[in-house]
Design brief:
This protein is an alpha/beta fold and 456 residues long. It folds into two domains: 201 residues, Periplasmic binding protein-like II (D-Maltodextrin-Binding Protein, domain 2); 231 residues, 3-Layer(aba) Sandwich (D-Maltodextrin-Binding Protein, domain 2). The chain contains 19 helices and 15 strands. Strands 7, 8, 11, 12, 13 and 15 form a six-stranded mixed sheet that branches. A hairpin with a 4-residue loop joins strand 9 and strand 10. It starts with 14 loop residues before the first helix and ends with a helix.
Length: 456
């Protein structure tokens, strides 16, 4: 805890002085580490306490603590830095709002693409445009995934620097497919092809009551690729307009309902929870042989090999194409500067060093088992070939994700809408309380429209 007599920071340049120094150094062709992130002698700096907050757990924090530690040691050795991490997902967002709204000092926060518009619209985040213009990160924005850069913009301003590129795909039990005579899914598979494959896979299941041919996502953001593939939409922009009663949206969720309850080819969320001891861990669900074709994100691949062992052969494969084309979910997170930060200049340079310094990116990718948000470092996020088919992994998650990646429009009230409208109503389908997706989605439409007009 900071004592009342502990200074936040001392001997710091003003924002304009800070940016002027960076510009002058760049013009002179020289570098100092807190602008270029290349190491060297310590810069002049302050002393005090720098604070950040994250939902990441201890293991995920290792890479960030490594980079932040290097930054402060090299540039601001008198500053004591600390990160409050390991907060539960919902607890994190509640605490972040409370801290910022209450005026407590917080210099950096983890930001998710689903919440960026909310916090930006509330004025809780500082726009980064001036900082980026004066000391632009290497490769920004051309060498970063467009989807990730755009995810952290609101009304034309940038509110976070992204750090990852998470894409969805299939995990496939090769032994089970071979037994059923089913080919590995390809990107030209249709959703009807998946349904047919699921039926054949179920026919050869050892325990049809506890095993399923495939598992698709039912949560709002991951299921969005199905909606788009079948010609539907959630919300369009300028002005915000709901499309939950569109025929394609209805078709997508009727497909999911039918796969669960009509055809019995897919588990419902409650069955996944029951099979994983309440954790919902889809990697454990797949590795235990419960499902032949599982949808999940790319980073799950790094734990599959250890979980599966020699129980069966497995690989990864693309998700299907629909009548409207092929779409693939992508998402990610980033670092933002809260409006209550007393040292946004130092924080911006810490973000820039941590997330965009070329010497850090391979370490981040390997330690985080992820694609970093800069495109040309993708190879460091591919698992070793002795764990999974590297070519299949690259094609499934990187090549197709980069080409076909999409995500919902995360309007300011999206987080609130997700829990109070989507989950509340759509759960009626997943537990078989309702059978008509169109009926459920009409209620979703009705309850969504006011949220599109209300301030966040």
């Amino acid at each position: 805890m900071q004592s009342p007599t502990t200074p936040r920071f001392q001997s710091r340049p003003s924002r304009r002085e800070f940016l002027k120094v960076g510009a002058a150094v760049a013009v002179a062709g020289l570098t100092i580490p807190w602008f270029a992130g290349c190491g060297g002698e310590s810069s002049p700096g302050g002393e005090g306490i720098w604070k950040a907050m994250s939902w990441e757990n201890k293991d995920e924090m290792k890479k960030w603590r490594l980079h932040l530690g290097d930054f402060f040691e090299q540039n601001y050795p008198k500053i004591k830095w600390e990160v409050d991490f390991g907060l539960a997902w919902e607890e994190y967002w509640t605490k972040l709002q409370t801290v910022v709204a209450g005026g407590a000092t917080l210099d950096m926060c983890w930001m998710h693409d689903t919440r960026n518009a909310l916090f930006a619209s509330q004025g809780f985040l500082q726009p980064l445009d001036d900082y980026i213009q004066e000391t632009t990160p290497t490769g920004w924005p051309d060498k970063f995934y467009d989807s990730q850069v755009e995810s952290f913009q609101y009304q034309g301003s940038q509110y976070a620097i992204p750090y990852d590129f998470a894409t969805g795909g299939f995990y496939v039990n090769l032994d089970w497919l071979e037994k059923a005579g089913v080919d590995v899914p390809a990107e030209d598979w249709t959703f009807d092809d998946l349904l047919e494959a699921g039926m054949r896979l179920n026919e050869v299941a050892d325990d049809p009551d506890k095993q399923w041919g495939f598992s698709l996502p039912t949560d709002s953001y991951n299921s969005y690729f199905i909606v788009r593939s079948l010609g539907g939409e959630f919300v369009s922009n300028d002005p915000l307009e709901a499309h939950f009663t569109d025929s394609g949206t209805v078709a997508a969720y009727q497909y999911l309902y039918d796969a669960i309850w009509k055809h019995r080819l897919m588990p419902n969320p409650q069955q996944i929870l029951a099979a994983t001891g309440g954790t919902g861990d889809v990697a454990a669900f797949f590795s235990s042989g419960r499902v032949a074709i599982l949808y999940s994100l790319n980073d799950v691949a790094f734990v599959m090999n250890d979980l599966i062992g020699d129980k069966f052969r497995w690989t990864v494969a693309p998700t299907p194409t629909g009548e409207a084309g092929r779409f693939q979910f992508v998402g990610g997170s980033g670092f933002s500067i809260p409006k209550v930060s007393s040292e946004p200049e130092i924080t911006y340079q810490a973000i820039k060093y941590t997330l965009t310094n070329p010497k850090n990116l391979p370490t981040t990718a390997k330690m985080g088992s992820m694609f970093v948000s800069r495109k040309d470092y993708w190879e460091y996020g591919v698992p070793p070939k002795d764990e999974v088919d590297s070519a299949a992994y690259k094609h499934t998650f990187y090549d197709l994700g980069k080409r076909d990646g999409i995500h919902p429009l995360y309007f300011p009230n999206y987080g609130r809408w997700d829990s109070s409208v989507y989950v509340k109503n759509m759960d009626n389908l997943w537990v078989n309380k309702e059978q008509d997706a169109g009926k459920v989605l009409r209620q979703v439409q009705t309850e969504t429209e006011p949220l599109l007009q209300e301030p966040a």
